[in-house]
Amino acid sequence: MLSGSEDQSIALLQPKHVPLSSSEVRRVKWDLHSDVVVVGFGAAGAAASIEAASRGAEVIALDRYAGGGASAISGGVVYAGGGTSVQTAAGVRDSVEQMYAYLAAEVGDAVAPATLREFCEGSPQMIEWLQHHDVPFEPSLCPYKTSYPSNKHYLYYSGSEAAGDFRDVATPAPRGHRAKGKGTSGKMLFSPLASSAVKSGVRVVGQTRAVALVVTDGRVVGVECRSLIDAPPRIRLLHRMLGSLSAKPGVYAPQFRYLLERRLARIEKKYSTVLRIQARRGVVLSAGGFVADRAMMAAHAPKYTGGIALGTAGDDGSGIALATEIGAATDKLGNISAWRFIVPPVPFLGSLLVDREGERMVDESRYGAAVGHAIVEQGGGRGWLVADADLVRDAREQLPSQSMWFQRVQNAGMMRTAKKGDTVEAAARAAGIDPAGLLATVEKHNAAIAAGARDPFGKHDDFRRPIVSAPFTLFDVGIPPAGAVAKMMNPCPMITLGGLVVDESTGGVKDVSGTVIPGLFAAGRTAVGLCSNSYVSGLSLADCIFSGRRAGVHAASEERHPHN
Fold first, then answer.
1. What's the rounded Cα separation, in Å, for the pair 283 and 520?
2. What is the pLDDT of residues 271-283, one digit of tens each?
């Protein structure tokens, strides 16, 4: 594949980056040539590829496996509003202003107000763009609050819009647009985008790992990779099968995934060869986050190492590392979204989440990421739901009609942790938390409801209910230690939210001085984006589409390097 003797090779096999002079870059033996090279072919990478190709650019998209990444195994929910065609067909009234007001409260300073407004104003068109590329949606509105709707519903309240404090900010509207497909329907989002990219002329090169950016005169001009492109067919097939298993079911079986990844690494080490790809206009990094890299998690988010890494083994921070090796800046790497879902069924919205002292931590009707955040940051990873007999009875009755199989498994995992007592104090002692503290919390809660007083955590009256009927139950919803059976039945999935700092008008990656690195762009969870402070369901995938399209447009518009 490569020409010239070993001592004439300009780059090592696996450098962290390849700095070249202008004269050296002219002597590089490129194996493939393209205008734009996209590193990581998930939702963000597919969006970037489509937009770059639509502007006449030659595009090569790389992926360590077969493509899809975390997007393909996700729930396929895109957060969109402002009056999308799907909302309108479902009879939902929404506006850009209401969407912006709600998201401004969630997003904070993750992006500039102008960027958030651009996202909200373009939200209806984003859904049209996705539908144009054959992503299916359906205006079937879910009539109850849930973490993820059943196969009967594809539009729902996917965030904290209906939670009490947020109702004071904006009129609630369902904005979770789930791609139509049974089960977790991420494949119904990614597959049409991947097909559309290929139809538009994008060349997808799978089983290829980017190991270095090639840089000359401060500009990124190419990518050096290790690829199985020339490996025997049986080896490529084995690698593809193991990679698929690593993604799912490996996401829910960390030890199984670890064993598969060791095997995959041995295959790549033995059979991969160097592949150098020229990028005449730019490189887009869309290789996911770093939740699968235990060292990075321990360094940046040590409180969050006990959850399930929601993503693929490709979410190892490699896209971020490629850029930081040439001086790129990062931000918000310590921000992690930990999901502790307590619904379905709906009655659990009326439970109370307490810590070891029996004190309440959050409005329980908030989205599961806010609940998980409270457990980690306020409860030190521990938390219990307090319920009475009436609540438990109603929950059991409603669960079958409101859930899918995996949600029933999660609920069963939570039910296994039940500690009961004929009094609140007895239940507290059984669970190992402070009896006096819990009794005070329950009495205060019941008194506020009886008096018609506002909930101290802002929970809306729609979701409040008194805790009065014995027996009383505490369910352990903390983050179990690694390897615990409960962890598998009721996992706490996590994703990383921080990444590379980008110019929000172009997606260009900035260095530590704030200057954009020519020829380098980033999108999705490789970059800081809309959800880098606070996550609600669908906002990450929406950001992947938003930032991916932005990066693709501007990478294709970049001037060609004079030596490319």
1. 5
2. 999 999 999 999 9
